[in-house]
Design a protein that fits this description.
The chain is mainly α. The chain has three helices and three strands, in the order ααβββα. Strands 1-2-3 form a three-stranded antiparallel sheet. A hairpin with a 2-residue loop joins β1 and β2. The longest helix has 48 residues.
């Protein structure tokens, strides 16, 4: 059913793993042994952790799309700049059809 939907799989895995994670953090990290307000603490922890996983999953998809579009634009920009604006002729940089003189030709002997 959800074998091809990675977002749903991520959210289901997050929802399942939250309960053991809560108890592990409660006893080991926070060193809390009191069972007072345990259901409300579980509910708050579950909501925060699941919403964090949901946002992370959504931002990962958006980040991938942004990185892909940025790389396409960057490569396109470099190809455009190299092809139409900055051309190299005989190892020298030519700007829009004009060839820059070599550095040794620009320096005058004193």
């Amino acid at each position: 059913m959800w074998l091809d939907d990675y977002t749903a799989a991520s959210l289901i895995a997050s929802a399942i793993i939250v309960i053991p994670l809560f108890y592990a953090k409660m006893y080991v990290a926070w060193r809390v042994v009191s069972r007072r307000n345990l259901r409300s603490q579980e509910l708050v922890f579950w909501v925060v952790t699941t919403s964090g996983a949901s946002l992370t999953t959504q931002f990962t998809a958006v980040l991938f799309a942004q990185l892909l579009s940025l790389s396409v634009v960057w490569v396109g920009r470099d190809l455009t700049l190299d092809r139409w604006i900055f051309k190299f002729q005989d190892g020298r940089l030519a700007l829009r059809g004009r060839v820059r003189p070599k550095a040794s030709a620009r320096v005058r002997a004193v």
